[in-house]
Design brief:
The chain contains ten helices and eight strands. α2 packs across α9 and α4 packs parallel to α5. It has an eight-stranded mixed β-sheet with strand order 3-2-1-4-5-6-7-8, with helices on both faces. The radius of gyration is 19 Å and the shape is globular. The protein is 41% helix and 12% strand. The chain is of the alpha/beta class and 319 residues long.
């Protein structure tokens, strides 16, 4: 290896190294703000036809206008989907009118709300962050499998490292602590993504499922919240400002996972630093969660029952 090659390989990966995305059709959920917006913008900047999948029309239209202003000529569109409503998820998939879907970035999520419930009666973080993501991916599966090299990126969080995963308390059956429920829902994202890759291999389809961990990112979801008291609003933004990254940096693992050619399915893309909070984007060995197939299968089966979404190849007969 030459010295110039060594220097290049040591250079941290950034969105400037995204290869040409022309010819790809991509969906990014939660694309109206934060990491989702940056992910959608950079995919569009590099040529992908990018669908901003948002739950709020007004905020989605504002994001679409902003993106078109920042990336003139971008091929972008807005479509509405609310992951807190399985009927909305179904309608989004049934309304898909492109000939295929090359890339799905499961980015949307909610962070530590008070105990609230989805339209279908699920605790909101479990319902949106996991069940909505599971249902949307399953509903879009026929369109993904029409692509030559379909890829699904599921955005988790470094907080999944701290989760105490309890299959008997996923839906706040016994107790609810917002931070614990959030970590558990993001652990569920990892189980889902890893099991989706196993499913694809078992079915012999070329779908690639990848996990992305943004690291601690100042998206404003928590620091700007009005749900907490004055002490929180005074202290937490300062603490976050000391350690958190910008949304541009936070989007890099998602963009790496979405665009690096020949990335192996099942990859766990995260910051290189301690606790996956900061550092250059890299493929890590991940956490034991990635290899816990028994729990992943149990969660998968439960999710199919709760959402009534079955993962089957197009044309397969029902079980």
């Amino acid at each position: 290896m030459t010295s110039s090659t060594s220097a290049a390989s040591a250079t941290p990966w950034t969105e400037k190294r995204i290869p040409d995305q022309r010819g790809r059709v991509a969906v990014v959920t939660g694309a109206n703000a934060g990491i989702g917006y940056v992910t959608a913008r950079e995919l569009a900047r590099h040529g992908a036809h990018t669908v901003l999948a948002c739950r709020d029309r007004r905020r989605g239209e504002a994001a679409l206008a902003r993106l078109r202003d920042e990336v003139p000529g971008a091929r972008v569109e807005l479509r509405l989907v609310d992951l807190a409503d399985l009927g909305s998820v179904r309608a989004f998939a049934e309304g898909w009118d492109h000939d295929r879907l090359d890339l799905l970035v499961n980015n949307a999520g909610i962070v530590m709300p008070p105990l609230t419930w989805t339209v279908d009666g699920f605790e909101a973080q479990f319902g949106v962050n996991h069940l909505g993501t599971f249902a949307l991916t399953g509903r879009l599966l026929p369109h993904l499998l029409r692509a030559d090299t379909p890829r699904v990126v599921t955005v988790s969080s470094e907080s999944q490292l701290t989760a105490s995963f309890d299959l008997a308390n996923l839906n706040a059956e016994r107790r609810y602590r917002p931070s614990a429920a959030y970590a558990q829902s993001k652990r569920a994202n990892v189980y889902f993504s890893a099991q989706l890759q196993r499913w694809a291999v078992a079915q012999g389809v070329p779908l690639c499922s990848v996990i992305a961990i943004p690291g601690m990112t100042d998206t404003g979801v928590i620091t700007k919240s009005t749900r907490y008291g004055a002490l929180w609003r005074a202290v937490v933004p300062r603490l976050v400002g000391l350690v958190a990254k910008s949304v541009v940096e936070g989007a890099r693992p998602s963009l790496y996972a979405a665009t690096v050619p020949d990335l192996p399915g099942g990859s766990y893309v995260a910051p290189r630093g301690p606790l996956q909070i900061r550092g250059a984007t890299t493929v890590r060995r991940g956490h034991r969660t990635v290899y816990d197939e028994a729990t992943a299968v149990a969660l998968w089966n439960l999710s199919e029952r709760l959402t009534k979404v079955r993962y089957q190849l197009p044309g397969a007969l029902p079980d």
